Amino acid sequence: MEKLKVQIIEQLNLEDMEPSDIENEEPLFGDGLGLDSIDALELIVLLEKEYGIKVEDPKEGKKIFESVKTLAEYIESRKN
Amino acid sequence: MSRKVYITGLGIVSSIGMNIEETFESLLAKKSGIKKPKHLTSVHKNDFVLGEIDISIDDLKNRLNIPENEAYSRTSMLGMLAAREAVNNAGIDNINEYKTGLLSASTVGGMDRSELYYRDFLTNDTHNKYIDIHHCGDNTEKIARDLGIKDFTSTISTACSSSINTIMFGARLIKMGILDRVIAGGVDALSKFTLNGFNTLMILDKEHCRPFDETRVGLNLGEGAGFVVIEADDIVNKSGKKPICEVSGYANANDAYHQTASSPDGNGAFMAMTNALKISGLSANDIDYVNVHGTGTNNNDLSEGIALKRLFGDNVPPFSSTKGYTGHTLGAAGAIETIFSALAIQNQVTYPNLNFKNTINDLGISPQTEVDKNSEVKHVLSNSFGFGGNNSTIILSKINNN
Amino acid sequence: MKNYISSYCKIKNGTVIVNNNEVFRSEANDLKSVVKEIYRSIKPGYAKFFKMDDISKLGFIAAELMLKDTNLKNRYNDSEIGIVLSNSSSTIVTDSEFQDTIQDNNNYFPSPAIFVYTLPNIMIGEISIRHKFQGENAFFLNEKFDSIFISNYVNSLINNGKIKACLTGWVEYSENGYEALIYLVEQDGNTEHTEENINIIYNK
After folding, report:
1. Inter-chain Cβ pairs, chain B and chain C, closer than 8 A
2. Could A41 and C47 be called an inter-chain contact, meaning their C-beta atoms sit closer than 8 Å?
3. A47: nearest CA partner in chain C
4. What is the structure's pLDDT at B307?
5. What is the DSSP letter of B317?
6. At which of B185, B211, B239 does a domain end?
7. C24 touches chain B (CB under 8 A)
8. What is the mean pLDDT of chain A?
């Protein structure tokens, strides 16, 4: 999950953040990290670029990107 | 002091027609121009339907009598076609008889050529003449030169609302007495750049778009150009020609919410419509038809619908999005839809919202789905919204004494 | 009716001038580093800054510095404040960046975050979102900074009552360099909003 956090910070240009600033279960959107819809689209690019996973429906992203934990679980499930 | 501003000429090219006559026929025949592209060379071309104009670069050059070796983008040439028609349509013989300006809008400029020669730009000099025509101002300069306009030219870039803003700004220059006549509008050609870009935003519908439908999933991109000739009432009256309609109101406001998304309460749209009404001196229930921005994205249609309900309450007038015909023509959309609105007043007819079936649950309002030739069309309101939060509205009115 | 320039910020060659005072100087040559250094020096605490493209960062930071002591939000409603900006090269640098992400079929990962910045008026959107300005806005493409055009246009907006204050100017960035002048026009003040006075601050 640490690696994933580094990737998120890089992909989303979260300049002032360290991986340790992101809690595993903290919401990525809304009140948590405060990401927005464009960030969600960038996370979809990240999934494809780093993990070869294609997300076709943007609505699907909502559940996947709830937190770093759900994202990691999703990547794990798609690997198998 | 208070000069009125009349529309006296229209010029248009889009996937539903190469001129006003063809376009109007398609509108009445419910004929959409959206299909698989023939001329755009993209690896995605078979994945999407687009409002592409069925004409090649070479045929465009022929049609405009441009020498083969001169560098012209598709964008410039589409713009020249529409601008020439607008000037002819307005019956102008001597363009410099009055102080005349050109205001044009574009979001991609010469991108259609740049992306073709991008590799060459980086590695060799074979296509460097196309570097100079990349910028959006190049279209404006080419069109101005083609029409012989000397007094004033400018280019506006406020994304997809750009060309409504050119008409608004032109109207202001006329009211201020700085110019007597303005050719205003916008143009954008399809490019891989925009297709890829909108694809990454995941707001493209691979099938025909369904604006204001509960099941809508996105927009179709299109290309086109639209120009109107607007003139001061004093010079129109002097010439004795019959104007098409009056530009009675206009406004723009910033939604100040998100780079690309519209606010959930439709604030920017509501402000633009409210302020345009204020300028026209009309009240909401004077509006007979609304040509909505209605791109077919989840976000736009819901937000715009909410703004309509805020403004009109339970009496939302007949409205439709014409993007099911042309696709979203970006920098040209505002002018193209202003032209549709002017044709509505001129011919006393309003248009259907193609592909609509299901009312949006959260809205409870439905667009018009048939051609309506039986209702009086005195005042038409048209919306155009753009990324960057720019929301613009124009109101056109029938001229009473003719 | 006369209008006045009440505040300005000029950024060029690493030098930042606010209302005739040099407030910051960067030794860096590239815009990316310069705007970051300025941001660090004024600490606006606005993380979204880092997601913007470089020309938006330039416009945003110039607006930030120019507005600092103007108390603008307490003096006007949101809809009374407009933004009119201009430049020559639109968003050419960002356009190329996006083009690079779609050019290579073997490394094809187009970035939505870059694409949204390939329109010059997104900068207006960013400033509007930050400060909740909702008045009329426009972005013009002119060959060079046109002080006659801008002064006429902005004065007419204010004189016609569309807005009461306008953030305006020129924010340009291309391979040939960068340059920003952002200033505020209001109905009161000491420096009249004329072509001559605009050129004086533009040439600082």
Report:
1. 140
2. no
3. C109
4. 98
5. P
6. B239
7. no
8. 89
**Residues 36..65 of C with a Cβ closer than 8 Å to B: which?**
none
Counted domains in chain B: 2
Q: Are residues B201 and C140, on separate chains, in Cβ contact within 8 Å?
A: no
Residues of B in contact with A44 (CB under 8 A): 202
Q: Tell me if residue A57 falls in helix, strand or coil.
A: coil
Of the residues B187, B219, B239, the one at which a domain ends:
B239
Query: What's the N-to-C CA distance of chain B in angstroms?
Result: 23
Cβ atoms < 10 Å from Cβ of C37? 17
Domain that holds residue C34: 4-202
Note the pLDDT tens digit of each residue in C62-74: 999 999 999 999 9
In this predicted model, what pLDDT tens digit does every residue of B237-261 receive, in sequence order? Answer: 999 999 999 999 999 999 999 989 9
pLDDT of B136 > 70? The answer is no
Q: Which of C124, C91, C138 is nearest to B135 (CA)?
A: C91
In this model, does residue B402 exceed pLDDT 50?
A: no
Q: Does C138 touch chain B (CB under 8 A)?
A: yes
Q: Encode B79-91: b = buried (16+ Cβ within 10 Å), e = exposed.
A: bbbbbbbbbebbe
Pair B220, B102 in one domain: yes
Same domain, B94 and B181: yes
Instruction: Identify the CATH number of the domain in which residue B118 sits.
Output: 3.40.47.10
User: Which residues span the domain enclosing B139?
Assistant: 5-239
Shortest CA distance to A14 belongs to which of A41, A33, A37, A38? A33
| Shared-domain flag, residues B235 and B253 | no
Q: Which two tokens stand for residue B401?
A: 């004494």
CATH at A75: 1.10.1200.10
- The reply to whether B402 falls in a domain is no
Whole-model pTM: value is 0.95
